[in-house]
Amino acid sequence: MITTVTGKNQITIPAELARELGISPGTRLDWSKRGPDTVIVRIVPKRSELARRLAGRGRKYLRAGVDPIQDLIDDRVREDQEERTS
Questions:
Q1: Per-residue confidence (pLDDT) for residue 31, from 0 to 100
Q2: Which stretch of DSSP H or E encloses residue 25?
Q3: Which of 14, 15, 55, 77 is 20 to 30 A from 42 (CA-CA)?
């Protein structure tokens, strides 16, 4: 697929490629040079996608029976109760 660079250094991504790769308005692309005549373009994942990929990655480092999320919730509830009684 061949595209042409405009006077403002803009290009049009071929529709078929954009659909296949899920590129839509707002998609961020990371450009890098690889050699004298080669440019690599990488799709930068959205923050929500990065968070989804990372979800649960640290579980293998937790001791059995430890739930840091529940500990955090318990701490917040306790802090709210202390504020109400002060």
A1: 97
A2: none
A3: 55
Q: For the segment 36-64, what is each residue's pLDDT rounded down to a tens digit?
A: 999 999 999 988 888 888 888 888 888 88
pTM > 0.85: yes or no? no
Residue type, 44: V
**82 is written with which tokens?**
């202390």
Closest by CA to 58, choosing from 47, 68, 46, 72, is 68
- Give alpha helix (H) positions in the chain: 15-21, 47-54, 68-85
Is residue 29 within 8 A of residue 44, CB to CB? The reply is yes
Residue by residue, DSSP assigns 44-64 as EPPHHHHHHHHTTTTGGGSPT
Containing 3, the helix (H) or strand (E) segment is none
Residues 6+ apart with CB under 8 A from 32: 39, 40, 42
